[in-house]
Amino acid sequence: MSSEQPQGRGYHRIERSYGTFARSFTLPSTVDTERVRADYKAGVLTITLPKKDVAKPRTIRIDITE
DSSP letters along 17-62, please? Predict the structure, then answer.
């Protein structure tokens, strides 16, 4: 069972299920699948999807000599 309730300018999605529940989604290619982590505390599921090192922006220092 799913419902959406207006909350200001956006929406707050609430899902309630009875019995077995499953959710699946496709990860982007920039996610390091070996380091994905999930934590479940106080009824909240937090999923951490770290980026691969090649997907992160790099800073390159440039020395200018005159």
Answer: -SS------PPPTTB-GGG-EEEEETTEEEEE-PBPGGGS------
